[in-house]
């Protein structure tokens, strides 16, 4: 609202930004941070007819009523709808997520890859200056070897863990190849294991495990480290990317950046702390693989089949 940014004179200097995927976890956090900064008109773009506000989103509710924010329904598979949503904006944050078509290749492809093509084309037509894409650190991980102190010089994997990651990698390539064409500057952010309010991937999967019989088991040494990223830090990274692109820093345009809390922790320790906070217990049994010879690691567990069956009861 005007009083938050210094009155009518300041309001006249506001720029317009668009958050595509604004109803997702990262999108909501980013919208909140943009409104708090006070120098943006924010267009929130989602796939539903009306914005579905959470109880804690009072700032966004006030912004809608006060004209500091507006909501657009758009399907990224429809370029005309994207153009309607982004026309007149100087920057587009694409935080889109897919959580309804995980087993449908055609839907995933048309939303993630074809949708990205449509967004790039729409940005060019509307003379948008900056496009910032939220991807995933998973695009460089293939599960065959550990990544220690990985950096942006790592190539994309040639063996992805799931369909969504594969398609996100394709979208990354499209975004990066569009940099500095028709005045559009682009960059890609790769957060790792995002957690926080509204997150619908990491915590729900841990809850599903905790509520199953398999919650008693941990497979492996339990010493594997992983990076986790609080959603507000991801939102902050988007703001930093926009500021850097605005200053036309050569080190940002057309580049990718890993985003983490910079505090690697043991995965199962982190998961256990989350679940304990929700009233669930820690795992009770550890299943360890052993080496058959110097070349082959066979997944044989140090418990018998009968033991596992009894533990699952």
From TrEMBL:
SUPFAM superfamilies: NAD(P)-binding Rossmann-fold domains. GO terms for molecular function: oxidoreductase activity, acting on the CH-OH group of donors, NAD or NADP as acceptor. Keywords: NADP, Oxidoreductase. InterPro entries: 3Beta_OHSteriod_DH/Estase, NAD(P)-bd_dom_sf, NAD(P)_dehydrat-like. Residues 18-285 form the 3-beta hydroxysteroid dehydrogenase/isomerase domain. Gene3D superfamilies: NAD(P)-binding Rossmann-like Domain (3.40.50.720). The keyword tRNA processing does not apply. Signal peptide: none annotated. Belongs to the 3-beta-HSD family. The keyword Oxidoreductase applies. This is 3beta-hydroxysteroid-dehydrogenase/decarboxylase isoform 3.
């Amino acid at each position: 609202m005007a009083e938050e940014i210094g009155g009518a004179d300041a309001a006249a200097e506001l720029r317009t930004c668009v958050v595509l995927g604004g109803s997702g976890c990262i999108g909501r956090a980013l919208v909140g941070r943009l409104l708090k900064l006070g120098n943006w008109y924010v267009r929130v773009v989602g796939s539903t007819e009306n914005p579905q506000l959470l109880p804690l989103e009072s700032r966004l509710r006030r912004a809608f009523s006060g004209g500091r924010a507006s909501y657009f329904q758009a399907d990224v598979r429809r370029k005309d709808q994207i153009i309607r949503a982004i026309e007149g904006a100087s920057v587009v944050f694409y935080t889109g997520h897919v959580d309804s078509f995980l087993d449908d290749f055609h839907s995933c492809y048309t939303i993630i890859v074809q949708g990205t093509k449509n967004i790039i084309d729409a940005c060019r037509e509307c003379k948008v200056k900056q496009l910032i894409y939220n991807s995933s650190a998973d695009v460089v991980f293939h599960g065959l070897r550990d990544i220690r102190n990985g950096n942006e010089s790592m190539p994309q994997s040639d063996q992805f863990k799931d369909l969504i990651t594969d398609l996100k990698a394709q979208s990354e390539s499209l975004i990066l190849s569009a940099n500095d064409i028709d005045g559009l500057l682009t960059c890609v952010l790769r957060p790792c294991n995002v957690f926080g309010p509204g997150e619908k991937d990491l915590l729900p999967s841990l809850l599903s495990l905790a509520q199953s019989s398999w919650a008693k088991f941990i497979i492996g040494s339990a010493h594997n480290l992983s990076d986790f990223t609080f959603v507000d830090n991801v939102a902050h990274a988007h703001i930093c990317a926009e500021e850097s692109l605005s200053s036309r820093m050569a080190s940002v345009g057309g580049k990718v950046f890993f985003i983490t809390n910079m505090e690697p922790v043991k995965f199962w320790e982190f998961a256990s702390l989350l679940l304990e906070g929700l009233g669930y217990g820690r795992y009770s049994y550890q299943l360890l693989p052993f080496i058959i010879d110097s070349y082959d690691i066979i997944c044989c567990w140090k418990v018998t089949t009968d033991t596992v069956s009894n533990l699952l009861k």
